[in-house]
Amino acid sequence: MKKLLFAVLAVMVMATPMVNAQKINKESVRAKLAKADATLEDAKKNVKASTWINHAKTYYDAATIATKDLYAGMTMDDVQMVLGEPVGSRMGVQLGQMTCNEFQFPWVTVYTAASNNLVTTWITTDFVVENKDLCAVALSSLNKAFELEPKQQEKISEELNKLKNYYSQCGNVCLDAAQYVDAAYFYTMTDKVISSPAFMGEKTGLFSYYAGYLYTVDGQTNPKSYELGALALNKALAEGFCDEEGNVYYYLYVCYANQKDSPVYMANLERAKQLLMEGLAKYPNNADIVQGLINLYTAEEGDNNPADLIELVDKALERDAQNAGLWFGRGRIFFALENYDEAIASFKKVIEITPEDAMTWFYIGYFYTLKGDAANEAFYEREYTSYEEQDKDMKAITETYKEALPYLEKSYELNPEHFSTVETLKALTFRLREEPGIMEKYNKYNEIYKQMAQ
Predict the structure, then answer these.
(1) Residues 97-155: tens digit of each pLDDT
(2) What are 309-313's contacts with CB under 8 Å, separation 24+?
């Protein structure tokens, strides 16, 4: 008898994956949704909170029917207990930054870490109703229930908490799957749930911040996301949330500054400046905020005076003297002010920190040529009373131009494909062609210029 009992148990264990294999009848689930919708048409029932709560539950169950039993860290044995045998698989799939094993099921594709084969994320591939967020319907119904009977708040909040967990989990899943726009949407919906008047849990702008950050990142390839990013990040601030480093202010600047086709673009830039100033006051060590201000003050748009920023940047450099970005920004400010000596001094600090940056070497050489051009222009406007004085100034101008040469040549050495470097070297060596050894350089760069121009 004992042997028979163990044999029966063994058969049951072996059969479990097949017994528990996921079977979803779309038509049956849709019929339940239709029935729930019909109750809302009943004049006697649709004035009761319970009707709307049950309606929400039906939609929530339909939305989660394929993934309700999945969680990160599951073993594949447990997954098969829930979903049955996979219909296909691929090993060593690259998913975002992760190397995963992929297992395909009728309704969902599951990804496990290649190192331990534990579930890391999944992507839903089939839906009861296509192109419709069923949980958004559930959220609307729960809000209606609270409107009808506020005394039911505790019960309604329990259902809202399920929606919060669903949306935040979907956001995390999409984030792990490198589906950043979808993740941003789900985090936005998470925020809508916890912003519901009936929700009794913690209300935080964290999820709006997540959504705003992801929209900001997506804006680099899809500019329309910048508008969504600004909305989400502003909501995070309005809800009293700010990340530890104050990056929300910088991301808002990025969203506003890149909505170039907006009819209120200039107003957006002014709003961005105010936000960056506010962020700098709260987070003075955030170099990105300072850089954002530099970008605004040195842009062609608006009437900002770059000189106003110098004190801000110098204070930031006192705290972080090895920040190449700040030195670069400082150089940009002085370039905008046509103070070439300070611009050159700032960019020389950049190459001390990042000596292999070809463009910084180019800019130093370029600034020297601009300094020479400015001195040359002043030379021809001045009335000289002696040849000696005139000769002295002309030699000084020539020396300024000569100072540009080693920086431009270093830039060419680091990046020989940069056309502007070759073009500038050609023009500079032509100007200095009467100086010893320069004509040979002119011939060299002129030939390279011709080849590149073709």
Answers:
(1) 889 999 999 999 999 999 999 999 998 899 999 889 999 999 999 999 999 999 999 99
(2) 309/333, 310/334, 312/280
- For residue 195, the tally of other CB atoms under 10 A from its CB is 15
- The 3-state DSSP class for residue 123 equals strand
Q: What secondary structure does DSSP assign to 320-360, as a single string?
A: -TT-HHHHHHHHHHHHHTT-HHHHHHHHHHHHHH-TT-HHH
Structure tokens at 87: 């219909």
Work out the widest C-alpha separation in the chain, in whole angstroms.
125
Q: Is 201 exposed, middle or buried (0-12, 13-18, 19+ CB in 10 A)?
A: exposed
d(CA 175, CA 186): 10
Express each pLDDT in 167-184 by its tens digit: 999 999 899 888 899 999
CB-based contact 197:95 (threshold 8 Å): no
d(CA 334, CA 352) in angstroms, rounded, equals 19
Residue with token string 């591939």 = 125
DSSP string, 232-248: HHHHHHHTT---TT-HH
Angle at 66 between CA 63 and CA 70, to 5 degrees: 110
The model's pTM: 0.73
* Residue 263 token pair: 């009819």
DSSP track, 161-194: HHHHHHHHHHHHHHHHTT-HHHHHHHHHHHHHHH
Whether 287 and 313 have beta carbons less than 8 Å apart is answered as no
Report the distance separating Cα 445 and Cα 405, nearest Å: 12
Neighbouring residues of 88: CB distance < 8 A, sequence distance ≥ 6: 103, 104
381: exposed, middle or buried (Cβ count in 10 Å: 0-12, 13-18, 19+): exposed
Closest to 179 measured CA to CA, from 221, 132, 219, 123: 123
How far are the Cα atoms of 247, 350, 437 from residue 324, in angstroms, in the given order? 19, 5, 35
In 3D space, the residue among 189, 239, 206 whose CA is nearest the CA of residue 60 turns out to be 189
Q: How far apart are CA 394 and CA 431, in angstroms?
A: 13
Torsion of CA 376, 380, 383, 384, to 10 degrees: 50
Rounded-to-integer distance, Cα 285 and Cα 319, Å = 7
Instruction: Tell me the C-alpha distance between 60 and 57, whole Å.
Output: 5
Question: Scanning the structure block, which residue is given the tokens 């959220």?
Answer: 139
DSSP annotation of 149 reads: -
**Euclidean distance between CA atoms 368 and 348, whole angstroms:** 12
The residues pairing with 119 across neighbouring beta strands, listed in sequence order, are: 112
